[in-house]
Amino acid sequence: MPGRFAPWLMSAPALALFVALLLVPLGMTFVLSFHAFGFYTGIETTVDLANYIDVLSDGYFHEIFARTFGIALVTTLLCAAIGTPEAYFLYRMRSRWRSALLLVVIGPLLISVVVRTLGWAILLGNRGVINTALMDLELITRPIKMMYTTGGIVIALVHVMIPFMVIAVWAALHRQDPATEQAAESLGAGPATIFFRVVLPQAMPGVLSGSLIVFSLSASAFATPAILGGRRVKVVSTTVYDEFLNTLNWPLGAAIAMLLLVAVLLVMVSWNRLVERRFAQVFG
Amino acid sequence: MAFLELTGLTKRFGEVTAVEDFDLTVERGEFVSLLGPSGCGKTTTLQMIAGFEQPTAGSITLEGRDLVAVKARNRGIGIVFQSYALFPHMTVAQNVAFGLEMRKVAPAERQRRVEQALALVHLEALAGRYPRAMSGGQRQRVALARALVIEPEILLLDEPLSNLDAKLREEMQLELRGIQQRMGVTTILVTHDQTEAMALSDRVAVMHRGRLVQVADPLQAYENPLTDFVSSFLGKTNRLEGRVLERQSGGCRVAVGETTFEAPPPPDEAAAGGGRVIVSIRPEKVEFRPAGAGLVEGRAAARIFLGDHWLYQVETPLGVLLVIRQNAGPAEVETGGSVGLAWDPAQVRLLPYEAQA
Ligand SMILES: Nc1ncnc2c1ncn2[C@@H]1O[C@H](COP(=O)(O)OP(=O)(O)OP(=O)(O)O)[C@@H](O)[C@H]1O
Ligand SMILES: [Mg+2]
């Protein structure tokens, strides 16, 4: 009985999943964030903006938000700086090597983030591989502090996120006409000029969409900052976790989570606007 | 000394030989077409001249200088690619200015030359547009302006017109030829379109399976092809397998099946092959005669009207022969009618025998 409702019926399972697993919890978190919490009374079903005012007026939370977005921004910049040339090399490689190396780049996605981050913990710790090696070589006398620093988190996040950047740029490179590089060369351009004046501008939409993915995933990443930052270097997602599971102040945790969601959404939407305005004319 | 000289040029990709022992000399200001079917090595030859492919063997010299050792970006060669390969993120003017920028031409001079180049291809008004917002013909012109503005030693064109519709293609052919002659730039055009090659070039170089088969001016190549391949590839022809019966003064007698007729002297190779030759008669050289008065008799099996001319298929003892007649009034022969066919013996061509490809 294909009719007007057929499309709705066919997408019903997906819609049900979407509503049950995303919209309902999100709506409940949203409602929860307006409730109050008392140490002796637990969650009270009052409705006010107290939680939001608490977060927005507290320097402690300001610092956490600033750190989170700082980490996300630096991670994004590093991913763009490393991932773009990497994608270009892959793109220029002979096909036999290319598939092998593409697997090396994308392979890490097959391994759990937790496992990869624990790997970094082994490398970065005070008695970790890097510090031990450097001390054995007598290049340093005291271990360099890398665990529980924002730097450590950024390094691990870059490693986790770079496949997304490479894939996005790679896709953009494949959309361009390979003859444009030859055209530039015949007009007298050297390899660096070709990359910066011809290849990069054409790959820019890919770099920008990759950046968007990396930024939003880094800003809301949990496992990596939780393992490498611990209690000492808190980011928004680990703070939400602590509010829910340690302080048991669910309403405050919910308010922080909503603020993170809104902030990331704002960044994404304005970024998208900017990109579209810039490239509509050229690439459409 | 020739301007551009290709000697023994060979390119192999692993097992595949794309170009083999290719010799060609091009004079300054000349327009030469590389013509051949798909996969015969035209693009590969062009890429070697441009410097994007390294020859396996052979040499390329420009005014006596070895070009193979020179990097592509220092060869000073202008190229128009089949896909145009315009820089999509640059405006038309920026595209054209790119080569001048690379040559560090001062901005004022650059501006002047870009305007000049755009005027040459009638695109002054679109200097600020992005390529995306242009038609195929316009992009083609931008690509041409971009290649010409650097005042290249040689202009290479790789099937530049094949993405345009028939009418636009004809217009661009005329324009291309006009610009080339005004600028006097040495030009090599790659094409698989024989009419394009003949319309544009001073000489055509016909390629077949990586080898150069014949280099000649278009009329010469069309009228006096050296091989069966050239005669079939350049225009239409009636290709018959025949045998030389006897040599006569200034010609010979050939037999095709039971029919015999006169022809010019056979090629030297015919003697070795027991007198086997390919007989080629162009359809427009065949004339109608009243039934019974021709060299061969036949029946007009089909007739196609093509505007300025008629194309007839005539069934004869030799097989089906094509005949082309000018449309100068009513059709000469009705479909199904009996008719005689005749031709001037001097217009028959005898070529070395090759099995049909
Ligand atoms: N990079 C390559 N690797 C392997 N074989 C190649 C390569 N480039 C070309 N060839 C082969 O060399 C031969 C000539 O190719 P080329 O592109 O020069 O042909 P072409 O005359 O330009 O044909 P077309 O009219 O289809 O463009 C073909 O058989 C092709 O398969
Ligand atoms: Mg080609």
Write up this protein.
The complex is a heterodimer of chains A (284) and B (357). Chain A has 12 helices and 2 strands; from the N terminus they run H-E-E-H-H-H-H-H-H-H-H-H-H-H. Chain A has 284 residues and is an all-alpha fold. Chain A has one domain: MetI-like fold, CATH 1.10.3720.10. A two-stranded antiparallel ribbon of chain A has the order 1-2. In chain A, a hairpin with a 3-residue loop joins strand 1 and strand 2. In chain A, helix 5 packs parallel to helix 10. Chain A is globular, with a radius of gyration of 23 Å. The relative contact order of chain A is 0.13. With 357 residues, chain B is α+β, with helices and mostly antiparallel strands. Chain B folds into 2 domains: 226 residues, Rossmann fold (3-Layer(aba) Sandwich); 117 residues, OB fold (Dihydrolipoamide Acetyltransferase, E2P) (Beta Barrel). In chain B, 25% of the residues lie in helices and 36% in strands. Chain B has 9 helices and 20 strands. Chain B is globular. Classes of the chains: A mainly alpha (284), B alpha+beta (357). The interface between A and B is medium-sized, with 23 and 28 residues. The structure holds adenosine-5'-triphosphate and magnesium ion. The site of magnesium ion has 2 residues of chain B, from helix 1. The site of magnesium ion (MG) has 2 residues of chain B, from helix 1.
Strand and helix map with partners:
The complex is a heterodimer of chains A (284) and B (357).
Chain A: H1 6-32, E1 36-38, E2 42-44, H2 50-57, H3 59-92, H4 95-106, H5 113-124, H6 129-136, H7 150-175, H8 179-186, H9 191-219, H10 223-229, H11 236-245, H12 250-279
Antiparallel strand pairs in A: 1-2
Chain B: E1 4-13, E2 16-26, E3 31-35, H1 42-50, E4 57-62, E5 65-66, E6 77-80, H2 92-102, H3 107-120, H4 136-148, E7 154-158, H5 166-183, E8 186-191, H6 194-200, E9 203-208, E10 211-216, H7 218-223, H8 228-233, E11 238-248, E12 251-256, E13 259-263, H9 269-272, E14 276-281, E15 287-289, E16 296-305, E17 309-316, E18 319-326, E19 338-342, E20 349-352
Parallel strand pairs in B: 3-8, 3-9, 6-7, 7-8
Antiparallel strand pairs in B: 1-2, 1-4, 4-5, 9-10, 11-12, 11-14, 12-13, 14-20, 15-19, 16-17, 16-19, 17-18
Bound molecules: adenosine-5'-triphosphate and magnesium ion.
